[in-house]
Specification:
- This protein is an all-alpha fold and about 140 residues long.
- It has one domain.
- Helix content is about 75%, strand content about 0%.
- It has 5 helices and no strands.
- The two termini are about 20 Å apart.
């Protein structure tokens, strides 16, 4: 392994840590959202989008929670099926995003947010499936 390969490996290792942090945040965010959904009052300013109907909230928060728990447990156990799981999980999240964006959101930046979400999922999945570091890490 030459120096540039070692540098790439280190960069991808750190990117893996960034993904862990992101999915920890998603787990905390979805836990807070579920608490908001099932309680009348919360000790923080609620962040659940008021544009979303109540029937959509369990799907929204549940899909984020499933994705984050799946990623974290799969990453730390080096589960070989994690890239495939994340493809399914991100497909689920993006499907919910499309429903929310076209059906309920009123923000003028909703299409930008949806596009950014799709780009992020595509980038992460490309790295999980195609990057040498992640291929080795999950085998």
């Amino acid at each position: 392994m030459d120096v540039s390969d070692k540098e790439k490996t280190v960069k991808m290792k750190y990117f893996g840590y960034v993904l862990v942090i992101i999915h920890c945040f998603l787990l905390l965010w979805s836990t807070g959202g579920i608490i908001e959904m099932i309680t009348i009052n919360v000790p923080w300013k609620p962040y659940t989008n008021l544009d979303f109907p109540n029937w959509l909230l369990p799907i929204h928060w549940g899909s984020v929670m499933i994705t984050s728990i799946g990623f974290l447990s799969g990453y730390f156990s080096r589960w070989s099926g994690l890239p495939t799981f994340m493809l399914a999980a991100y497909t689920m999240l993006f499907t919910v995003c499309v429903i929310e964006t076209f059906g309920f959101m009123t923000s003028p930046t909703k299409y930008i947010a949806m596009t950014a979400e799709l780009v992020a999922y595509t980038l992460i999945l490309t790295l999980l499936f195609r990057n040498k570091y992640f291929i080795k890490y999950f085998n």
